[in-house]
Amino acid sequence: MTETSEQFGGGANKRSLLSAMSRGARKKCPRCGKGRLFRSYIKTADTCANCGLELSGHQADDAPPYMTVMIVGHIAIPLALAMKQIFDPALWVQFAFWTPVMIIATAWLLPVSKGALVGLQWANAMHGFASADSGPQLAA
Q1: Environment class of residue 15 by beta-carbon count within 10 Å: exposed (0-12), middle (13-18) or buried (19+)?
Q2: Which one of 18, 49, 53, 58 has the fewest CB atoms closer than 10 angstroms to its CB?
């Protein structure tokens, strides 16, 4: 019986993790940084219009919403507690202020975190990006 192990990111075609995640977070193709990553809010395009990278094979699943909730929660909750300690507003004021702030922050951060995750997957040749047709890394 033979065992196979998948080695991520190895080989002559080394991809830059930081630039791929940065490009994805800006909602651009992780390979070229020019084409659009999403065709709608968080629906990835099938291919990059600029370099032709196949984008439909990524497997982001529940990671972007999880990361978004973790980030927004870890920023908003301490700020809300500080606001309570410093200004002591009424509870309805707290809810009236923080509910829309958290909804807007979550809506803004969700495609950013999904783009960064797709960039991470591309840089590590994971899931749908493990094929040999991914081409060379373009200069940042």
Answers
A1: buried
A2: 18
Q: How many other C-beta atoms can be found within 10 angstroms of the C-beta atom of residue 8? A: 13
- 3-state secondary structure (DSSP) of residue 36: strand
If you count DSSP H runs as helices and E runs as strands, how many of each does the chain have, helices first? 3, 0
Cα gap 133→19, rounded to integer Å: 20
Q: How far apart are the first and last CA of the chain?
A: 43
Residue 15: φ, ψ to 5°: -110, 140
Average pLDDT over residues 43-59: 92
Q: What angle do CA 91, 93, 99 make, to 5 degrees?
A: 95
Phi and psi dihedrals of 38, rounded to 5? -115, 140
How far apart CA 121 and CA 100 sit, in angstroms, is 32
Confidence band of 2 (pLDDT split at 50, 70, 90): very low
